[in-house]
């Protein structure tokens, strides 16, 4: 009965926090998902609707032709695999995300109960203590990243560690190995945490003479071999390719004070506060809460002898937990907003590889946090007995639940259904008559403000089983500048189908540019609320229903000065490769920047562009020269005389007559302001252009 009550308590808490539409897969909720939930769902549905491929979790409905491994969309791969099998067999696509959330909450308290029981607590005390594992703030906080709600795996690993070091035998060894292998197809972070605890159990079990050499070495061999085989089979590791990695180690870390400083708490001024040096330290949110901190203080004061007894003979577990906690701090250690330590370990090749894969290091405090809670309850049980633990655990539970009410409210708000950002029915109808969705710029290159639209379009494309270039993955080596330049030359660049629907985001593509590139590709566009939808001519009714026609293309006249600072009317003539405008103008960004304009009247013969520019410079560094093209024809380079604002001239060979000017400025050897020590801007900048004029050559 006690395990069932513990499991039921977790289910009940999930039902109190989350909307029923989320938990039970209602279309009214899931058709409107955004954020990480949308990324998870899009990866799953694209995988399920695609053909079977190798590696097993690859789909080419996202980022064709190579496709992506849906491991990097975090859809809980094991559940996605089972869902695809069901879909291929029956045509019904199960939505497992809500049931997974219910299961994870139930298993959280059940695994906590199991851990406390194997540590010697009586059933009532273990049940009361198990409820505290449900209100660990970092567990509640992890909603929005479905696989990482599976904290029960850490608790199960700790319980199996106790069995390996107390009872020995093959059973806990095989269960521990099986748990780690299961985590390979749930989440790699949880897999590593569980593996750290299980491997410590094999070692400490051997040192404590509870496991023999065959059991310890056999378990380790099964674990490492199994992880390797599954990682290759499922595409997490691809032979001949470096492991997929991303930047951010040291940014997504834990603050040294995070476990003890109230956050998302009823403390004054802390309702929405997350302690962070760099902003990415939300990934290291590990506040323990007043209830749990209070138990830890009591355990140290009253039960320090039982605490030491618990640690005795468990040296490898202590080292594993402390090692993971140290990794959580990363090589850039912050205490509050103070940067107190920097270690150059990334220069060491193996560490650089590991930190690139497991870049969100702040999560690795979780095993130590759970162990501390369990250890405190064990120590207090030794001093105060089972009844004392029940009373203290329930008091701590009440204090904890009251203190972290802002955290509960925050999660409930994040879990609410999103408001629609597109006319879903209209976009479904339009996409049905096309064979591909191209989005410019795609998700990984788009601004944060555009992401809700991209989530919504991705959900529609996945539902229809239509491929899209806009893959919502959590790491990629995509060159956004190169892609932007490619699309200005050919709007169909990268298209795999014959009849794509092309979406251009208005924040990145001007009406003039949309018209020009669409016309060159044999497409026409309508204006949508967030940009433009372009398709082959004549536009079909379903596309016309997405928005209104574009007005006539704006032009510039010869000898007409055009300004490009913030708010100026010349911004509409800037193509790819420009920064957001400022009072200084628009900075060229990346190796190539383009100006695209239609002339008020055709121009015959050579042209000249005169531009008012400010080159990026610092000390001896100066962006001195730009290679120039007109309509992809090479022109003589343009040069600046030195730092500071100045006018440059570029002669543009034009052997015939033209009514369009596509001017390219290409730069070599660019460095960022960050590299130059000017500020933290990592962009490769060239010249800030404040004004330009096109005229006929003398």
Automatic annotation (TrEMBL):
- Transmembrane spans: 7-30, 97-116, 123-140, 146-164, 173-201, 213-237, 249-267, 287-304, 316-335, 364-382, 389-408
Pfam families hit by this protein: DUF6311, DUF6311_C
Q: Which UniProt keywords apply?
A: Membrane, Transmembrane, Transmembrane helix
**Occurrences of domain DUF6311 (ranges):** 9-404, 426-523
- Can you say what this protein is called? 4-amino-4-deoxy-L-arabinose transferase
